[in-house]
């Protein structure tokens, strides 16, 4: 999470660098801060102590004052195609001054991005965290002011709204949510120790300005265009239901299974009679294991399909629909437990390979042909990877996951296949479920959300009606 960074490599073979040292106590280090694209090194410690809140604030105020105007938006290069970024990275690092900046950013504990937009709605907040603000003339100023390869970037807007962007290849949402929750709870506590000192140290942040070669100047133009094209290709919708986990638990149902069945019913109705193009991915944590991260819960089952079909079949009784729903959620809970115990199948299709004595991890995180990257030259990929059933079963048209923080008004990610959807949801609130759906603009995103709304209402009505019948 801290003191590390992703580094672009050739042919999609990125790697991670870490500057954490065994036995460190947290009494050394720095933070990378971005404002109007200008990069600053913010000192975090002095004389074997962490700086006080006042000392941090003074440095940040200086950064605001001395970053007026616009500086070269080098950060947007990292948001480009990884192979293009690898080429631009090498050009950037060929300058000694730039190499020092890269080292400072990569070794920083984390990054803080002080951004000029002021989001005021869930969609605006989500988009500004996801990719940043785009100006009227199409400049992606958000991505210029970030370093998307850092695992943790705190993003603070001019209206004091804030959030976090996480680089997903080296870590997952669970630890970053915990980080944010702990920090916010600590700051809210009146007893929090802000580290006041009688004579604050005269510490000043250090500006580090890029040397921009003609090659990098051209690369920035291309990266701006690529970022703008990608951002403008994306659609997003957001919804809060009228009930939450309190009502769901009162019906004796797992809130996560309930939320997933909403998605399954909505997606089937969206497709109509058309077949599914792929599967539904739900992340399960495997952090109980050493270096465990996630496994895939395969949500779709014969039981879920049978229940979904029953919901629009007038010949199926309310009671029978409820029985089918119970069977579907029971199956889902079983899949979730199996995946959480590391007994899923999908992570076994990932692979790692050694190159030049470095550990190189295949970066196509969602491509289950990833083990092909580890084949030696001339070796043929196993037939499994070209099997049509395998290809369909590992094509995630629905990429879903749930985290929860009472401090997060929004969160999400993009779709992972061109004709798919990213479905982020929260089930932790007593009075509402929360859904964010992302997709490409050519997909019927708004219609899918309309079906989510209807499915949430229909499942509630199914249980309310069956509950009333049972009482009678």
From TrEMBL:
Entry-linked SUPFAM superfamilies:
CoA-dependent acyltransferases (SSF52777)
- What domain of life does the UniProt record list for this protein's source? Eukaryota
Q: Which Pfam family, any one of them, does this sequence belong to?
A: Carn_acyltransf
Alphabetic keyword roster:
Acyltransferase, Transferase
Looking at the record, the residues that make up the Choline/carnitine acyltransferase domain are 1-452
Similarity-based family: Belongs to the carnitine/choline acetyltransferase family.
Q: What is this protein called?
A: Choline/carnitine acyltransferase domain-containing protein
Species per Swiss-Prot/TrEMBL record: Hohenbuehelia grisea
